[in-house]
Amino acid sequence: xxxIMLALVAVLLANADGRSGTLLSRLVSARSDRRVTVGIAxxxxxxxxxxxxxxxxxANAMIGQGVAxxxxxxxxxxxxxxxxxxxxxxxxxGANDGPPVMLAGRMLANQFGDRSHFLIGALAATSGAGQWxxxxxxxxxxLAMLPFLAFGPRxxxxxxARNLRWAxxxxxxxxxxxxxxxxxxxxx
Length: 188
Known about the structure:
Layout: H1 2-14, H2 19-30, H3 34-62, H4 65-84, H5 93-97, H6 100-111, H7 115-127, H8 130-151, H9 159-183
């Protein structure tokens, strides 16, 4: 049960920049099939989360807890770097007017290996509870997207959102360093 809460908080913090919510908000406003678009986005996240959670659960049986803790540290620090150094998403003109099958393929490919899924896989590797890590990651991802879906993509440009992004990155850095110190036995 710890895996669901850890994944929820970690993925929520890792997506504090609103990149996924901004992308989905723009897609929903540009496409006529809004329900299908939202369904495709959630399905793509779930498929990739299940893949990451399964890989993490398999890794749990193969690697020690110290290595798994270092994997979590790497995932958290890379998520913090992504928050501190945001990149503008590449505009995909074909996503706005393409058929739903093409949109599904693009969303699956774009989300594969995302910071959320890296965190889900790493947290599943520490506990072995992949399905719980995937469920927690989905809830965290959804909660991180809601403000940007409700208020639009311009929310990410506001000062408060930038401050929240920096605070989330600081928490992830602290959490990652604490995991690393625990992996080396420096703290309990």
